[in-house]
Design brief:
- The protein is an alpha+beta fold.
- It folds into two domains: 2-170, OB fold (Dihydrolipoamide Acetyltransferase, E2P), CATH 2.40.50.100; 207-422, Chloramphenicol Acetyltransferase (2-Layer Sandwich).
- The chain has twelve helices and 18 strands.
- It has a six-stranded mixed sheet with strand order 9-18-17-16-12-15. The protein has a four-stranded antiparallel sheet with strand order 1-8-6-3, with helices on one face.
- The longest helix is centred in the middle third of the chain and has 16 residues, at 204-219.
- It is elongated, with a radius of gyration of 26 Å.
Length: 423
């Protein structure tokens, strides 16, 4: 039996990617779990493993092809011992460059015609089969919404709940309500003459950033809360820590201390460590802190998991490792997907204060400005202190003004008196 290999979705936000490299060729035998290809997404380069075993019958999208849509047909397997497809079906592999742009439009031309799920033959993904078996469902009774009527995970889950599949529900209810997208004007229409600029094409990362942040800014009711913090005590504590641990190669940054303080404050004010969902407010058990890291072409937010349980030296080492691999696009999906709270620090660029856009589905993000000497009043007398401005942007659906203020009240002493971090 011939089996389709589809372009996988390697992250919840992935819509397309680049098929960077094939590790197999036509005629190779593969087993479930074998690495068969490398896919470049908007965030990283990841290996793809086979979910079925068999012999590679055809490769339909060549290595290096860009903008391959998720679920596009990229190759075919035939079970060991089965007869390969007739020769004409293998021809599209040689025409892969024609398929590459755009891959989604060309893929159906080389895919086999849909096969009705009749008799004992049911097309289903391996995961769907396992889920159906565990749930005691007969796959013959499940309506497939995958390519060519294939039963996928969502179909089994929907059948187990006794409801329609998400894909059908979305097509019948969401489409009519969708608003028509705003037609963007060209630069020429806005008075900028052609030839007066160079156009840099959007890569996958920039497209994803544009889409997700537009959605967040438009759909999330957000508001900022800003406070000033005196950080002379923090700077002195940091210098002392780095002096004591210099022989161990530890060099803690101000940002490392901020991450730890945010995590401790979230545990003291758990209402701020939450996410809005249509079903209810998700109260997170750990403070998983996403740290904004600038990389070529955009930014990424690797995550320090359960930061409240880790010391400054461990946080410092993790952040350095995550940032280095982020810039090399070598992070695993679980290292940058998720998180319960984000920290974005532009202080090293001299930015005094700013407000960030919420990284959904997190309930808040903290923007950290530069520490600078400013005049302050202490006991009625004018003095000079090193002051840092931070802005907390909150999702008002889950972190309202009182909760945000309570969180900042817990965060402030942790920064101004760093010894309280160990109490």
């Amino acid at each position: 039996m011939s089996m389709d290999i589809l372009m996988p979705a390697l992250s919840p936000t992935m819509e397309e990617g680049t098929l960077a490299k094939w590790h197999v060729k036509v005629g190779d035998t593969v087993k479930a779990g074998d690495v068969i290809a490398e896919i470049e997404t908007d965030k990283a380069t990841m290996e793809v493993e086979a979910v079925d075993e068999g012999v590679v019958e055809a490769i339909l999208v060549e290595a290096g092809t860009e903008n391959v849509k998720v679920n596009a047909l990229i190759a075919k397997l035939v079970g060991e011992g089965d007869s390969p497809a007739p020769a004409p079906k293998a021809a599209p592999a040689a025409d892969a460059p024609k398929v590459a742009t755009p891959a989604p439009a060309a893929a159906p031309q080389v895919a086999p015609a849909p096969v009705a799920q009749t008799g004992d033959r049911v097309f289903a993904s391996p995961l769907a089969r396992r889920l159906a078996q565990a749930a005691g469902l007969d796959l013959k009774t499940v309506k497939g919404t995958g390519p060519h009527g294939r039963v996928v995970k969502a179909d089994v889950e929907a059948a187990g709940k006794g409801g329609a599949t998400p894909a059908k529900a979305a097509s019948s209810t969401s489409a009519p309500a969708a608003a028509a997208p705003r037609q963007a004007l060209s630069l020429e229409q806005m008075g900028i003459p052609a030839g007066s600029y160079d156009l840099v094409p959007l890569d996958g990362m920039r497209k994803t950033i544009a889409r997700r942040l537009t959605d967040s800014f438009r759909d999330v009711p957000h508001f900022p809360l800003t406070i000033d913090l005196e950080i002379d005590g923090l700077l002195a504590a940091r210098a002392k820590i780095n002096s004591l641990l210099a022989d161990q190669g530890v060099k803690v940054s101000v940002n490392d201390i901020i991450i730890k303080a945010v995590a401790v404050a979230l545990k003291r004010v758990p209402e701020a460590n939450a996410s809005y969902t249509p079903e209810g407010i998700a109260m997170h058990k750990h403070a998983d802190i996403a740290v904004a890291v600038a990389i070529d072409g955009g930014l990424i937010t690797p995550i320090v998991r359960a930061a409240e349980t880790k010391g400054l030296a461990q946080i410092s080492a993790e952040v350095k490792d995550l940032a280095a691999r982020a810039k090399a696009k070598k992070l695993k999906p679980e290292e940058f997907q998720g998180g319960t709270f984000s920290v974005s620090n532009l202080g090293m660029f001299g930015i005094k204060a700013f407000a960030s856009i919420i990284n959904e589905p997190q309930g808040a993000i903290m923007s950290v400005g530069a520490g600078e000497q400013r005049p302050v009043v202490k006991n009625g007398q004018l003095a000079v202190a090193t002051v840092m401005t931070v802005t907390l942007t909150c999702d008002h659906r889950v972190v309202d003004g009182a909760i945000g203020a309570k969180f900042l009240a817990a965060f402030k002493p942790l920064i101004e008196e760093p010894l309280t971090l160990i109490v």
